[in-house]
Amino acid sequence: MLELRNVSRAVGGADHIRNVSLALERGTLNVLLGPTLAGKTSLMRLMAGLDEPTSGTVHFDGADVTGQPVQRRNVAMVYQQFINYPALTVYENIASPLRIQGRDSATIDREVKRAAELMRLTPYLDRTPLNLSGGQQQRTALARAMVKNASLVLLDEPLANLDYKLREELREELPKIFAESGAIFVYATTEPQEALLLGGNTAVLSEGQMVQFGPTVDVFRRPVSLISARTFADPPLNTLSVEKKNGRISHGEAVTFPVPAHLQHLPDGAYTIGIQPHHLTTRATTPHTVSIHARAIITEITGSESFVHFTFAGTDWIMLTPGVLELDPDDAVEVLFEPTNLLVFDMEGRAVEYEFHTAA
Amino acid sequence: MTAQAKQTQGRSFAWLVPALYIFFLLLPIYWLVNMSFKTNTEITGTFSLYPHEPTLRNYAVIFTDPSWYSGYINSIIYVVMNTVISVAAALPAAYAFSRYRFLGDKHLFFWLLTNRMAPPAVFALPFFQLYSAFGLIDTHIAVALAHCLFNVPLAVWILEGFMSGVPKEIDETAYIDGYSFPRFFIKIFTPLIASGIGVAAFFCFMFSWVELLIARTLTTTDAKPIAAIMTRTVSASGMDWGVLAAAGVLTIIPGAIVIYFVRNYIAKGFALGRV
């Protein structure tokens, strides 16, 4: 088990990581989700032992490993950039951690060939990395991380620079490949979709702080704060400031609806509601459906779905709707949502407590 | 006019500029080689474009007279010493400058460079006084160390550029794989900056080879460099032009050989690896 206890790291007066506590179990897949500069890489470097925390401690299987040099920790790391040893062949690149461990050459040969087979690098073993395509270079780096059989595997946006098709393939294979080893698997990404596809647990990071940690789907469905919900929404979360008064929730005249049953217990006052773009629709469903009269700004059609940007009462929202929905700019559109799908936050941005009704 | 014709016409003059350029560049070298195969009578007596009575006497003098050939040996000894010391000292220094931020790193880097900006004459006196005190005058190591003042900063400067071109993540990946620093440096890092080391060594070699003032100040007989010997060839019978020209030719050769080996990296070296 890897445990970070109140870990902070400041570099030249700038806080890169602020007071993060996190416990990762063996054999789990953990996603670090956050925008660029959220501290994903900084946190990984602390986990790996490449950097030392300014304060706080790092424990591995109960032992305090803070300040222990990276060579003595059993970790593997793959960077977003394709990092290999340019002077060595692909074979020697993959073999390198095993050579350092002093394994016999038969074992090395077997392990390297097995990893190369999995990463489909067998035909390229005699080449040097710079003579390979980007995807092959990254697979070399992944194969090197794999043969090491490390107890902590850190992947820092490993697929970000790869083309779409290769990403999909590797994203499916990676968790399987590393799951066998029983290692702690940490995967940093900026994309909510990738986190959901990988599954496991997700830690949401924002500005060097950990906002939320839990099973990925739970974090997605029940964000503890507005920041967490925003980080985990792609396209961006729709938000609106509302007031709860006299049994109604309203934003001026534009949006007003009776307080749904699961929010009855909230005291009257100001709140922020959030709703995921895919929870907006143009087709009526239940008697509780809330309707907004809006004007279209622009529609982006991908084929299987349409992104409709629309505006009402000075607020811009996005609706993600299946199929093709063509609207001209300034067309009137009636947008509907179920109050049960609402995320409700208080004025400090904390999610309010309520019984959760529907599946996301 | 067709494109073909235009191209042909362009080509017919294209040789002219490089030809002129090479002609002017090579003229003094040709003249030196020319002189080295002439007799003194021919050099002083007539104007001839090539030696009419080619002779190897001048070269024979140099290769048989210890006061001549020892100059070459001395020069090569201290130049090689200096190159080895400079590059060996510059490698860790350049690594530190390229990989770590430390107090005053930029100032230190700049200060190193300013050593190159001062004329060698400035340092001749203090060096002479200092080395006298330590009894190092007229030794090869004295000249080799003195030239480090110029060559270490230069080598640090060149190597730092090459090293900064290697992503820091390669270092980290090696540490993660379990490499110790020395093993990483030798096995992984050095091959990546090999051309930089070659270029740095070349520049150290050249500067040390052509530097005259300090080398002459710090030596008297045992470690006297060839360039110093060449400036003292006025004998009782007057100037021995032919021998001097032959010595000049032989002085150019080591540089030419070194340039041949690093010719592909020179441009990158001048750009300090930042190409």
From TrEMBL, chain A:
The keyword Cell membrane applies. Keywords: ATP-binding, Cell membrane, Membrane, Nucleotide-binding, Transport. GO terms for molecular function: ATP binding. It comes from the Bacteria. Residues 2-232 form the ABC transporter domain. SUPFAM superfamilies: MOP-like (SSF50331), P-loop containing nucleoside triphosphate hydrolases (SSF52540). InterPro entries: AAA+_ATPase, ABC_transporter-like_ATP-bd, ABC_transpr_FbpC, ABC_transpr_MalK/UgpC-like, Mo/tungstate-bd_C_term_dom, NA-bd_OB-fold, P-loop_NTPase. PANTHER family: MALTODEXTRIN IMPORT ATP-BINDING PROTEIN MSMX, OSMOPROTECTIVE COMPOUNDS UPTAKE ATP-BINDING PROTEIN GGTA. This is ABC transporter ATP-binding protein. It comes from Roseibium litorale. The lineage of its organism: Bacteria, Pseudomonadati, Pseudomonadota, Alphaproteobacteria, Hyphomicrobiales.
TrEMBL record, chain B:
Keywords: Cell membrane, Membrane, Transmembrane, Transmembrane helix, Transport. It is a multi-pass membrane protein. The chain crosses the membrane at residues 12-33, 76-97, 109-128, 140-163, 184-210, 241-262. The keyword Transport applies. It is found in: Cell membrane. Pfam families: BPD_transp_1 (PF00528). Residues 72-262 form the ABC transmembrane type-1 domain. PROSITE patterns: ABC_TM1 (PS50928). It comes from the Bacteria. Belongs to the binding-protein-dependent transport system permease family. This is Carbohydrate ABC transporter permease. It comes from Roseibium litorale.
